[in-house]
Structures are given as C-alpha cells and as structure tokens.
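Progress against Task 2.4 (sequence-to-structure conversion) is shown through the following example record, which the project officer requested during the mid-term review.
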Amino acid sequence: MASMTQTLPAAEQGVTENAPVDMALLLSRAFELGDSLKNSEFAAEYVYWKDQVSQDAEVQSLTKQFAKAKEKFAECERFGRFHPDYNAALDQVYEVEGKLDQVESVRRYKAAESSMDELLNDISRTLAYAVSHSIKVPDNDPNPKASGCGNGGSCSCGSGGCG
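Structure tokens generated for the chain above:
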C-alpha cells in the first residue's frame, strides 16, 4: 500500500500538453486501490451489517409491510392529496419506515453504508482534484456544501455563468 501514496510521474511534474499516459500503471494503481477498499474495515462493516439485515426475520416482515404501505400510498398518490386515504396511507409509510429504522441491524447497516459512501466520495474528490479543481464530482449529499460555478456560488472563472 505504500506505493499508493506515491504520485504518478506526470502528477509530480504537473500536467503537460501531450504527456504520454502510462495506462498500465494507472490501471494497476486503480486495481490496488479497489483491493484496498474491498479489504478495508469500512467494507467489512458494510458487508457484515448488510448480511445481518438480510437474515433478520423482523426486518423481512417490516420490509414486506413497508412495500405494501408504499404500494397503497402510490395508489392514493395517483389522485393527489384529495384522495380520502392519502394522509392515512402516507402516515402508514412513515410509521413502518420508523419501525424499520428502530431495528439495530438496519441502523448499523445504514451507518456503515453512509461511512462507505463518504469514503468513496472523499476518494473521488481527491482523484478529481488531483487533475483539476474545476472537475465536478458526483455526490449523494442532497445539501451540497461546495460553492462555485456549478453549485450556485460565486466564482471568478469568467465563464459568464456566475456573477
């Protein structure tokens, strides 16, 4: 793993026009990173709690109830808020979802999933910003913290898209 902290030759010198890319080295390092992630504590925790959720009888029962409640709500939603069962169906969805969130294996699984997602996002940002800070990196966060051209903030890029 020590080799993962080394930079690629082109990165050490800065990106130059028409610099040859050693794709074999790049792919090799990508596979090393992938293997490191698969063997990480984050991945082990995620896989463990995912298995626990899939084997939990209470979760399976609540998941079936949740699917039925969502189906009932979707049926009501076709007619909008004025459907006589709309609020009751929505309340049922939230109630079953709340019960699911109270199950320890589900809570732990969601926490492990969130940790893994955060790690992968950090890695994606690190890789993208090693090339350029203007590269947009997809994120699952519904409330992005970044600012700049692509995020509704102000910048001085001169693209005309900000002001």
